[in-house]
Design brief:
Blueprint lengths: L9 H7 L8 H18 L5 H12 L5 H8 L6 H23 L11 H7 L17 H15 L5 H26 L3 H26 L6 E3 L3 E6 L2 H9 L7 E5 L3 E5 L6 H16 L8 E5 L3 E5 L12 H17 L4 E5 L8 H18 L3 E4 L10 E8 L17 E7 L9 H7 L4 H19 L1
Parallel strand pairs: 1-5, 4-8, 4-9, 6-7, 7-8
Antiparallel strand pairs: 2-3, 2-5, 9-10
Helix pairs in contact: 1-9, 2-9, 3-5, 4-9, 5-6, 7-8
């Protein structure tokens, strides 16, 4: 999502990476409201040309925070720094005028014309800097004298060297004076840098809400609820393949929720999508859903995939258990976290793995921790909400089921599930994948024997 933001300036790209995780309803609401205002601006056809011009100007903005810091610290600026400051100030003035002309007030830039006037005594208004003659009659006279003497072949070299020394000293005094004159505008310069980056980021965020059909979430004080939540990355991949992504509804309440379902039923995608939406929300972004009400959390704890660490010498199970323990300690410490764990204890034996899943679900329910845990284990008895991916729908689609069209035969929606057993679709999926029939026939013989043993 962040990588797909159409940021124009290098300044904004760097500041984007330093945006804070927001912890209060007020700051989140403020960011969401700004995005909504900018979204409306982008959808106003009369402002299209102005927005295009602003984006062109933003593309020219450089990250001169180092120079701005030297201004703040009352350092003497060199020619390159004075040039950077002049070029940025000119751009900031032009962007400010465009914003004012279109009555766009969601972001405002301070007036840097006094800074430009200091650095542009000849009023040329071009992004170029030179210690101009206009800064000092003495400098202008000295330069004229040097030019005349250089044209005279009789002029001794030592005379020219002495004049060059005086010229350098005079230019240095002018740079020092210019730096002193600019220093009182340090607040405006830094504010212009931050607000220019903010404008760039806000335009990109607003454009993304339109392009990806994101929604403005409401702030909830209890249940987090998503209507038609979707994963933008998976949706785009499927769209490129001519397939559709099925958005789902999900409620996340205080306490644990177990999600079961067949392989390839999208359980991992659900966790990743919920993690993405919560994180976007806490940074003041719109979220990938048709509607959303989201409760604030202190952090998102996502435990997913193969966590094996060869460098530390830990097995997948050991690494996972250390992560789980860290989550438990955070919950015990009173952290308000959103906990998302995929296939908990999947890398150990089923008997002990099932016990760990039951224990974790019980623990999280007792603590009222918002959490989603996926599992393939049957026989989960823990006190928790239970949901299941609806899964394969035999009558849903006509035609032969293959690995290329399998998603068309799966209903990815979540339904409440009161059963202890989980869907058994492993053999069916293996056959679709083209796994050797002899192997699968033998596996089903063992499966039949196990079922007979359980019935007896």
């Amino acid at each position: 999502m962040i990588d797909k933001l159409e940021i124009q300036s290098g300044l904004a790209k760097r500041i984007l990476n330093t945006l804070p995780y927001l912890h209060t309803p007020e700051t989140i609401a403020q960011e969401l409201d700004k995005t909504e205002v900018m979204r409306n601006i982008l959808q106003t056809s009369e402002l299209t040309d102005t927005i295009t011009k602003i984006k062109v100007k933003l593309m020219q903005v450089k990250d001169i925070r180092g120079t701005a810091n030297r201004v703040t610290e009352s350092q003497i600026l060199d020619d390159i720094e004075l040039f950077e400051l002049k070029a940025f100030s000119l751009l900031a003035m032009e962007i400010r005028e465009l914003l004012l002309s279109a009555n766009i007030t969601v972001v405002s830039l301070p007036d840097l014309e006094p800074v430009v006037n200091i650095l542009d005594p000849e009023k040329m208004r071009i992004p170029h800097f030179y210690v101009y003659d206009a800064y000092s009659p003495e400098l202008a006279a000295l330069r004229a004298k040097m030019k005349t003497l250089k044209m005279d072949e009789k002029t001794e070299e030592r005379v020219l060297d002495q004049l060059q020394f005086e010229h350098t000293e005079l230019e240095d005094r002018i740079r020092e004076k210019l730096s002193e004159q600019i220093h009182p505008y340090k607040k405006e310069i830094n504010e212009a840098l931050v607000n220019t980056a903010t404008l760039d980021i806000l335009l990109a965020k607003a454009q993304q809400t339109i392009d990806m059909q994101l929604c403005k979430p409401e702030i909830s004080t209890s249940t987090t609820r998503y209507i038609k939540i979707f994963n933008p990355q998976v949706k785009e991949v499927l769209w490129q393949e001519g397939k559709k992504f099925q958005a789902i509804d999900i409620d996340i309440e205080q306490g644990a929720c177990l999600i079961t379902g067949a392989n390839m039923a999208g359980k991992s995608v659900i966790l990743k999508t919920v993690a993405l939406a919560q994180t976007l929300f806490q940074f003041g972004f719109y979220v990938p859903a048709e509607q959303a009400e989201i409760a604030l959390v202190d952090e998102v704890l996502l435990c997913i995939g193969d966590e094996q660490s060869e460098l530390s010498g830990l097995s997948s199970y050991a690494s996972e258990m250390l992560q789980v323990n860290a989550i438990v300690q955070d919950v015990k410490a009173g952290k308000n976290a959103l906990i998302l764990i995929d296939e908990l204890a999947r890398t150990t034996n089923p008997t002990e793995g099932k016990a760990i899943v039951n224990a974790m679900l019980d623990f999280l329910t007792d603590k009222g921790a918002r959490s989603l845990i996926t599992s393939h284990y049957s026989g989960i008895k823990a006190r928790c909400k239970k949901m299941r991916v609806k899964g394969f729908v035999k009558e849903h689609v006509q035609g032969q089921l293959t690995i290329n069209n399998i998603n068309e035969f799966i209903d990815y929606s979540l339904i409440e599930d009161t059963h202890d057993s989980v869907p058994q679709e492993a053999m069916r999926i293996a056959r679709i994948l083209g796994v050797d029939e002899e192997l699968l026939d033998k596996a089903e013989e063992f499966l039949d024997d196990e079922e007979k043993k359980n019935r007896n």
